[in-house]
User: What shape does this take?
Amino acid sequence: MKKGLIIVDYQNDFVKPDGALSVPNADTVYEYILKMADSTPKELIVATIDAHNEKEWELLNTPESAKYPPHCVKGTQGCKLYGELEQKVEAGNIFEKNAYAPDKTAFYNLEDCDEIFMVGVVTEICVYQTAIALYTAMANINKYPKITVDLNGCYHLNETAAKQQMQYLKDYLGITVIERA
Ligand SMILES: [Zn+2]
Assistant: This one.
């Protein structure tokens, strides 16, 4: 059984209480994520990081820049993985993205996994969209690993929305969702 792990956007700007787009309580799942990382072979840990160009807020009116304040600007501390996670993930397995989900190539290192666990923030936006992107990337190369979102390692902004999106993943993509203990 080969088990992989995807850590979604667990970055300073989202996780630190004084981060640019802080998600309340996101830091409470840090120890759980570390434990998952420690029990996964390093080469099978992938992290996505939101990485924006500051021009998005100054010059380009993107859908995201219209909705959120500047966050995760490339090259800043806020863009970096939180805490010790940077040491837990190989540099080549950290994928920058300029959207809610990464490009499909972010998932190919996990293509031989039997099961892929997902944790990170926020449940109803980037974890949700990355789960869909993962399913799609795998299905299009005829791979169907078991995908499990573990809510013990996730945090949401809107609990009702998070529940709806997780239900969608279960109903349409056969994704397993582990409820918070
Ligand atoms: Zn963003």
The first helix runs from residue 12 to 15.
